[in-house]
Amino acid sequence: MNSRILASLALIAAAGIFFAYVSPTWSGSIAAAQAAISADDQALAAAQQYTAEQNQLASARDAIDPASLASLSTFLPGSVDNVGLILDLNALAARSGLSVANIDVAAGGAGTGSSQSAGTLPTAASNPVGSVDLSLSASGTFAALQAFLSGVEMSARLLDLRDLVVKGSDTGVYNYQMTIRLYWLH
């Protein structure tokens, strides 16, 4: 009989420990830890997927010819580089026979490519291409202007001639006011 009382007390103590300690611990802090582990597992899976995609894109980039990448970088550079472009335009004008009087960043011409002006298509605010307008004053013959515009057209850099104003002259030497838009990647 003594053994039955002892077994009953042990059973009651076990049930009390289970309901007082084990069950709240299991459903409280252990459940929270399991939820955190599950969230970490999902984050780890997403990180592994990102790494796999990054490696795939890196291998695709490495498969591109370096000369083509250099040409693309020249065509649409990663920065504005106004000074280099102004020197290139000045050299092109000198080779063409134009005399450049002034090259300046046009007032209000700087932008991200998201603003609209007459004759342009609407663009999204997330456009990765930026643009800036350069104002150029020059003088020379019409043949020199044609040679200069041909050089701008054949330029390795993406440029647009936005405006061209020609002021006449009886001597055959004309004054030109141009606005050239240049582009770069943000």
Helices and strands in order:
Blueprint: H1 2-62, H2 66-75, H3 82-96, E1 99-105, E2 129-140, H4 142-153, E3 159-167, E4 174-185
Antiparallel strand pairs: 1-2, 2-4, 3-4
What report would you give on this structure?
Strand 3 (159-167) and strand 4 form a beta hairpin. Strands 1-2-4-3 form a four-stranded antiparallel β-sheet. It is an alpha+beta fold and 186 residues long. The relative contact order is 0.12. The protein contains four helices and four strands; from the N terminus they run H-H-H-E-E-H-E-E.
Number of domains: 2
Report how far the terminal alpha carbons are from each other: 88 Å
What CATH architecture of the largest domain would you give?
2-Layer Sandwich
What letter string, H or E per element, gives the SSE order? HHHEEHEE
| Rg result | 36 Å
What overall geometry do the principal axes of the alpha carbons give?
Answer: rod-shaped
Q: Which fold name corresponds to the CATH topology of the largest domain?
A: Alpha-Beta Plaits
Q: Can you give keywords for this protein?
A:
186 residues, alpha+beta, Alpha-Beta Plaits, 4 helices
